[in-house]
Design goal:
single chain; 454 residues; alpha+beta; Heat Shock Protein 90; 11 helices; 10% strand; nucleotide-binding
Length: 454
Amino acid sequence: MATGAVGTPPDRRGQGARAGDTEFVRKLRWLMLGRALFAMLTLGAILVYRAGERLSFFVEPLTSLYVVAGFVFLVNLLYLATFRWFRHEEAFGGIQIFGDVLVVSAIAYLTGLLYSPFLFLYPIVIICGTIILGRMGGYFTAGVSCIAFGVLVNFQHYGMLAPPGFESSPFAQDFTGQVVFYRTSVLFLACLVTCLVSGYIAEQETRARADLAVMEEQVKRVEKMAIIGEMAAGLAHEIKNPLASLSGSIQMLKGEKGWEPHHEKLMGIAVRETARLSGLVTEFLLFARPGSGSPVPILVASVVEETVALLEQDARYGHHVGVEVLVVEGLTVRMDLGHLRQVMLNLLINAAEAVPDGGTVIVSGYRQNRNAVALSVKDDGVGIDPDIVKHIFDPFFTTKKEGTGLGLSIVHRLLEESGGGIQVVSCPGDGAEFLLSLPCDPGGPSPRELRDRC
């Protein structure tokens, strides 16, 4: 066994679903609704402006804006009509965002391009692209927007393209290379800042949703465990007393006269099975009512090494598994000593059962933050299927031929009572890692005193 420092825990990133009535689909629907409202508001604003200026219905650039607004509205109806047949929602969202960039570029061109009052639509499209496609999608949308606008401005600057009525506008006299560079740079900078800020916000939202999903799963598990725990407590109390009476009666019968040799085997079976039932009832009680125990400062490395030594003495596991301990010296937690030993023993047995002959289990520990200590139990076994990971801490859930399915449930319950937590990271064929968060002890006795206590 070796003792030393370890690295940081793996990063967790949640991934949202993309099927059915998911969050992504809801965002697409809001995007299409917003686009339809924009088209109607644009058309209404044009009509109000025309009436206020007493202009003809067919005067540029109003005529072209009618066409653009109508085109946006019709394309949006097409999106709505074909939405249910698209199997790849992300590709469908990307098509819409790319189309929005082209529409905004057309509106900017029809309304003066470099001097258009609608250039603010570019940052809005970038924000929509980030919301729909994520951070990288926002970068892509910003890049496409800058390229589209830059190409149009260059065409205008070199006389290859001119917005309707631009030659007769007062802006035509100030259309110099310096002005073009300045105004284009301002728009590009606005697009860059928009994609950076919106990308950061979108990433934080994704992480928050992932953390919320984890918390919801924990709440559901706690509620389920509370109900089953109360039931198990009542059942255990009803069984434990008869078991004690049964065991005592059998012992008394063994001492009676007239004892025959074949009775010894039968009584041995009865005593063994009674002991097994008593052990099961003890597990039920530990799961149902673990209690907070007596929290004291504990030297983590000492408890881990003690539990590893206990595992190595077990004939079932000690001969085929190697355990390496990488726990920072002097690392202390505050919880019940018996609870920590029970947690470590359950996790080490679970890891030992998962690895083949010659397998390795690594126990590492480090200071996670000011208030918590991180402890990891990692094996190089076959790993855990994702469908099983969802239920691995549920009481009475097991994939083993023998066992009650309470081992990991007890671990979860003991850590919860101590103010800690546990999660599992695993991929089939790549082993499993149980990550524990334990309450840190900020002060307390010296490491030597803790070692003597443990």
